[in-house]
Specification:
Layout (H helix, E strand, L loop, with lengths): L1 E5 L6 E5 L2 E5 L5 E4 L3 H6 L3 E2 L5 E2 L13 E4 L4 E5 L4 E2 L8
Length: 94
Amino acid sequence: MTTRLLPPATGNATHAVCGRIYVGVVGTPQDVPDFDSPVLQANGWQIVDPHGSGTTTTRPTNPTKGMRYTDTTLGISILFDGRVWRNPVTGAPA
């Protein structure tokens, strides 16, 4: 799974994590592997959705009510209402 992060707002940030280079542009989110997320967060990157991000087919299989996930196929952040994933802006199933 991946985690969506925003780079520090203090300017463009470049960080190397285990040989992978992340170049952050202010205001531009990036999806990074879960295992790299803690290092980037320790360097000022902010988590966007605590439950991850990815395609529609990689959504969490056992979500809990209130879980938020960035669906990169749809290009939106969605919420699980206990029964279905929903677009939080329109309320429509996603």
